[in-house]
Amino acid sequence: MATRPTLPSPFVPRAVLKRDVFSEIAVGSLRDEPERTVTYRRVAHSAPWSRPLAWALAKREIRALAALQGLENTPELLGVDASGLYRSWIEGAPLHVAKPFGNAAYFRDAKRLLHALHRRGVAHNDLAKPQNWLMTPDGRAALIDMQLATVFKKRTALFRLLAREDLRHLLKQKRTWCRAALTPSEKRLLASRSLPAQIWMKTFKPVYNGVTRGIFRWSDGEGTRDRMDSEGQAIAARLDADPAVAGHAVLPFPYPKSRGGIGIYAFVEAMPGVVPADLEARLRKAPSPRPDIVQVVRQLPRDAAGTVREDLLRLVAINHVEEIDGLAGEAATRDLMREIAAGRGNLTDRRLKL
């Protein structure tokens, strides 16, 4: 195995993005390069009983990133130490936030990137998750999270099978966001799930879900799916039905390490004439499930189509407010987001203990 890189200077953390039983993901910078954003998968944070598997997943990611060094729009492996691994940060929004409806150019670029990945002998194996596909600020596709990736020296039958499943999962994303651009051959591939995939779905996947979600309390939603799919949806439905609410965004944020897990942050815009303080107090006392943090704002940020800018609000929820100006765009949105950030309710993860 090639020599693993060493981080050129100490990592300075800013915020935690995710926690589960296998690792903690933090974002920060290098002490000697403060302008350079770095992510850190801290495997040493994992529960002692899960650490062997946590390191097995981390080693898969290390091998994959080493094989992909130099490939544009994939993370660069910056360093490995006894606690975990460090990767370059890729600026972008995951598909469920970017919502690339009708954006055929994005999916052409995503297919190109996936073919480049496969030419390096890497099968990603986790592309059903929209969180692992990013749209960069210039509209390009990027790939992250290589914990389940497999590296092949030769294009074996297994590699070709896994590469085919990677492509099928990309096409499922394309079907969700850009169905009209699917070609006849892509539609045929979507309709013809491989025999191993059929066996997996009918036999092993229910067991996998039972173990990861039931025993490990971990899911395919980067540690957030279970609570967001149940409590988050119920909270959003209640806000939709509230006549005092003009708009909302319900987003996850990481609890501090001492508590662990994922919290729910609700940004709420009040209807004209509604007293914000009264609405906030009522929502805080709502029946369970209810948000851990409620912030009633003067106005929610929206794009030209009127869609709430969850990408910007997510930065406030996770205390990553220093990146807002770079993504906000026009001055009015920047000013609004600074106002929202000043009143944020999550102040827990400004510093990490390493």
Automatic annotation (TrEMBL):
<keyword id="KW-0418">Kinase</keyword>
<dbReference type="GO" id="GO:0004674">
    <property type="term" value="F:protein serine/threonine kinase activity"/>
</dbReference>
<keyword id="KW-0723">Serine/threonine-protein kinase</keyword>
<protein>
    <submittedName>
        <fullName>Serine/threonine protein kinase</fullName>
    </submittedName>
</protein>
<keyword id="KW-0808">Transferase</keyword>
<dbReference type="InterPro" id="IPR011009">
    <property type="entry name" value="Kinase-like_dom_sf"/>
</dbReference>
